[in-house]
């Protein structure tokens, strides 16, 4: 098995990569590599195409190279970090494979800390893509107190719940799940899209009070799958329920 990290620039192995700030309007896809495959690659590619639009982005090269690079080296489990954007006016892309350690939060649950840094509301259609410019998220992350299994709860500037610092949100009410409305801001994760065709859920505006009425809350992203939420700090605690465990089992049986 190849030692990580491994770095590739335009598909070729290198010893170092440009800093995030070198990319103009850079797009980021953070993916799980599992047994030599990226299980959700078609959805990552679809979101990437949506972000980059038409023109001259190197999507064909990326689509050909990423699955091949993932299959090399016998990686059983890794984080794959893909960046695409302009450097000095030219399209560039790179791919990093980083260690992925088992996380206790999948069993013990996450504590969500409401951040004072809020996401701006866009008047244009929100593509839901993940941009390399993460200054607002980094500022919110700096607010987190010391502790294990903490994540930040992100609201928009009008008080609506949007997402966590690294995941989408799902809240169970009765037999169905509700996820925040992402029309105005936020990242529409590919795990959320994957679950949407397998689990009954609706997209709705919600504030923290509404969220706290849920019977269960889950986080989801393409690297960790589904994580239970056991607390919104200062508001409410939950026991981990059968609904969240069912989502985790669905992913384990179907994806990895």
Could you name the key traits of this structure?
single chain; 256 residues; alpha+beta; nine-stranded mixed sheet; five-stranded antiparallel sheet; 24% helix
Question: What do these coordinates show?
Answer:
By secondary structure, the chain is an alpha+beta fold. Helices cover 24% and strands 33% of the residues. The chain contains 7 helices and 14 strands. The protein has helices at 41-52, 59-71, 105-108, 135-141, 190-196, 208-212, 242-254, and strands at residues 6-9, 12-14, 24-34, 77-87, 90-99, 110-114, 150-155, 161-164, 168-173, 176-180, 201-204, 216-221, 225-232, 236-237. The strands form 2 sheets. Strands 6, 7, 8, 9, 10, 11, 12, 13 and 14 form a 9-stranded mixed sheet that branches. A hairpin with a 2-residue loop joins strand 4 and strand 5 (90-99). The mean pLDDT is 94.
Element pattern in H and E: EEEHHEEHEHEEEEHEHEEEH
Proportion in helices: 10-25%
Query: What is the overall silhouette?
Result: globular
Q: What's the β-strand tally?
A: 14
- Oligomeric state, counting identical vs distinct chains: single chain
Low-confidence segments, ≥5 residues, pLDDT <50? none
Please tally the helical runs, counting DSSP H or I stretches of 4 or more residues: 7
Question: What fraction of residues sit in β-strands?
Answer: 25-35%
**Helix-strand category:** alpha+beta
Radius of gyration: 18 Å
Mean pLDDT: 94
Q: How far apart are the termini?
A: 19 Å
* Major beta sheet summary: 9 strands, mixed
Write a brief structural summary.
The protein has helices at residues 41-52, 59-71, 105-108, 135-141, 190-196, 208-212, 242-254, and strands spanning 6-9, 12-14, 24-34, 77-87, 90-99, 110-114, 150-155, 161-164, 168-173, 176-180, 201-204, 216-221, 225-232, 236-237.
